[in-house]
């Protein structure tokens, strides 16, 4: 049964429940490569910033290639910075990474 999805230009939005449904959505020719490198998002355990094991497993089962899963250092883990993030100075004012996303931050 086809997966219900919506296309917006090159972007496809769909809700999939298993690797078979995901495979139907993975139509990019690059996904037929002999080797695919996957870098999961393990920044934190907050929603939308962490690739959980079920999602990663679904992706691995949907791909028919040699798969390499890699990880890299994250500055937050490396420096043990506080929850509000590393601070820095902008125009003589002490700010943190959240400043970037607020109205006062860079535009």
What is the quaternary state of this protein? single chain
SS field, number of helical segments: 3
Report, as a whole number of angstroms, the end-to-end distance.
45 Å
Strand order, biggest sheet?
Answer: 1-2
Structural class: alpha+beta
How many independent structural domains? Answer: 2
Question: What's this model, at a glance?
Answer:
With 107 residues, the chain is of the alpha+beta class. It is built from 3 helices and 6 strands; from the N terminus they run E-E-H-E-H-E-H-E-E. The chain has helices spanning 19-25, 53-62, 75-79; strands at 5-8, 11-14, 35-38, 66-69, 88-90, 93-95.
Main attributes?
single chain, 3 helices, alpha+beta, about 110 residues, two-stranded antiparallel ribbon, two-stranded parallel sheet
């Amino acid at each position: 049964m086809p997966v219900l999805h919506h296309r917006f230009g090159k972007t496809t939005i769909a809700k999939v429940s298993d690797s078979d449904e995901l495979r139907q959505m993975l139509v990019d020719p690059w996904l037929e490569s002999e080797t695919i490198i996957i870098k999961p998002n393990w920044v934190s355990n907050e929603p939308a910033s962490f690739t959980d094991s079920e999602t990663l497993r679904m992706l691995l089962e949907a791909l028919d290639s040699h798969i390499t899963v890699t990880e890299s250092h994250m500055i937050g883990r490396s420096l043990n910075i506080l929850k509000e993030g590393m601070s820095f100075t902008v125009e003589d004012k002490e700010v943190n990474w959240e400043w970037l996303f607020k109205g006062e931050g860079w535009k």
